[in-house]
Amino acid sequence: MYLKSISLRDWKAYALANFDFPAPDNGKNIVLIGAQNGFGKTSLFEAIVLCMFGKSGMPLVARSPFAGDDRQRLATSYRNFLEKALHSGAIDVGRSSCSVKLAFVDEGEEIEIQRIWHFSEKGQLKPADEEVRIYEGPTKTIVGPGPGDDGDDLEWYRDYIARRFLPYYLAAFFLFDGEQVSAFAEREMAAQVRSGIEGLLGIPILKELAQDLRQYARVRKGEVNNVNDNTLERLELELDNLNFQSKKRKERIEELEPEQVTLKEQREKLTRELASFGAGSQAQFQEQFERLNRLQRDVEDGKSHLERLLSQDIAIALSGKGLRELLKDELRGEIVREKWLAGRKQGDANLSTFLDTVRLSLQKVHPNLNPDQESAVVTIASEAWESLWYPPPENVSKDIIHRYLNEMERLKVIDALDDLDELGAPTVVELLDRISSSEEAASRLQKEITRTESITPHIEKKKTELNSLNTRLSEVDQELGALRREVASFDADISKKNAELAKLSGHWDQAKPSLRRASRALKVAAMVDSIVAQAVPSQISAIAKAMTDAHHSMAHKKDLVDRIDINEDCEVRLLSAQGIDLRNYDLSAGEKQIFTQALISAVASVSKRSFPMVIDTPLGRLDVAHRKGVLNHLVQRGHQVILLSTNTEVVGEYLSEIEPYVQKKYLVTFEREGDIGVSSVKEGYFSNGAN
């Protein structure tokens, strides 16, 4: 495939311009178009890109303010860009459109793509009037969407161009600006490789598909009444997590409880053994340990009692009677409000019947009332009926906060709050004092035991064992207490979540179709994510080989990089013949750019596309040492290469390097006609290599 011609009408500085290119033949594949900066070189590049891809090509246009993937910003940038693209003098002479036409030859068949943009009298783009025309063959048969094709016509043309020519996500590897390559070269190599392979595989489309599927799922779920914002899914996930956390702690409790029983049995056994060691100091030792055991049991019993209180209503009891009274008043007010609203609703349902009865009764009045009098009586009756419900009762609440409770449940809560009046801080403080007192006494007694003298080695061993047992038992008791409190908290949350989920069950049957569709969309999106994750590694080997070949043909220091190695994470190694990674040494800006040029060439090669390569500012910021290498690689490509060069790039020795491969040359000139700049095209090139 090659580009046969380009026709511009009222595009930027080009009022009318035509370029004709021969087919690549006999090793000649280079077309040179020269223009000084500001003469229209980049405008020509932009015309090619936007004719092919419309607004999808905006990311390739260097001067576009577009950034990111937001479609609205893309559309806005596209419109602003095109309004500045209309030739300055066109509107003044009554021309309100601009167009770009590209003619290609593919396997002997000619295909023309023309894109026309229409503007208002003030030069504003009409979004609905972007027109695409495609003609095939010698008879120029029109190609376009048929009567049965639904949707956007521009989307149809985009799909056609992607199938027949090139998808927009691969365009950056065939149509690019040397300045942009320089900027891209500064990115981390792994990021460059991943971006290149994703473009090769069309992953941007898959990512867009996954995003659209998730948006579709959000819309479907949003259609479900009272089941929006993923409410059901969130509740189910929260319940699963709560049940999982509760189960883990219960399993841990089941592990610790047998150990607790065993430790207590061992402690009792050691205590009995110590009791058999005779009288005297041993009797005192035995008595001390018995007292210590009693104190420790008191502490354990006190803590168990405290845990029972904490797992029940002590938190609410400690909140204060004033706060509880406010809650009870609110609940009573909500009961009154629900009854008042129910009565009012029932009254409203009977209002029309009542008014009809009043109207019939007025017909029996003599003398008969005129219509105005009858209407006044009906109005007064209606107002009297409404006054039955206003003002609302004095003790009614302003709003219903606790909507999840019915009247019976509210009364139960009020009764439970009344029962808590007897349970408060004094009870807990007294219990804590008792536990603290027992712990302090146990601590003092433990110190006394430590100071006890004249204990036989055997008793000392038993005492050490007993101390170790008590320490471990205390740890187990503390962990069990904490676990039981957490289980009680989780179970309370589970009960609350189950009640909340049950409230939504009434909407579930209606929600099922939309939620099923949403669920399927999310599953497909997840599947696309999985495909994307697995796709990149599948092309790494081919890209690495193609990059190595391209790098060898372009690099100035050909003896340094023997091969390019890429792992599954797209991390790059530039290996010498000795296996040394040259990335461990600082790479020059030129070497980085050669790497990027090799990646672009590799993606274009592996894609198996024969689309022409169009490069604006081809030598960009390349250093002198690498310019000839890049040019020599381009002439080896075989397919058509169009270079848009300034008068400081492909000139002099660089022009001589590729002169045998050049098919045709054009020179873009620029003049001012009054306040309007006009670019013109003629065959030829810079005189003496440069101007």
Structure description:
The protein has 691 residues and is of the alpha/beta class. The chain has a six-stranded antiparallel sheet. Strands 8-11-12-3-13-14 form a six-stranded mixed sheet. Strands 9-10 form a two-stranded antiparallel sheet. The chain has helices at 41-53, 71-85, 153-164, 178-185, 189-201, 203-222, 231-275, 281-310, 314-318, 321-362, 371-387, 407-419, 425-451, 457-503, 505-554, 589-606, 624-635, 653-658; strands spanning 2-11, 14-20, 30-35, 97-106, 109-119, 125-136, 141-143, 175-177, 563-566, 572-575, 613-616, 641-645, 662-673, 676-683. Strand 13 and strand 14 form a beta hairpin. It is 57% helix and 14% strand. The protein starts with a strand and ends in an 8-residue tail after the last strand.
Quick tags:
flat; 691 residues; 18 helices; six-stranded mixed sheet; six-stranded antiparallel sheet; alpha/beta
Helix amount: 55-70%
What is Rg? 43 Å
- The helix tally amounts to 18
Into which percentage range does the β-strand content fall?
Answer: 5-15%
Low-confidence stretches: 64-70
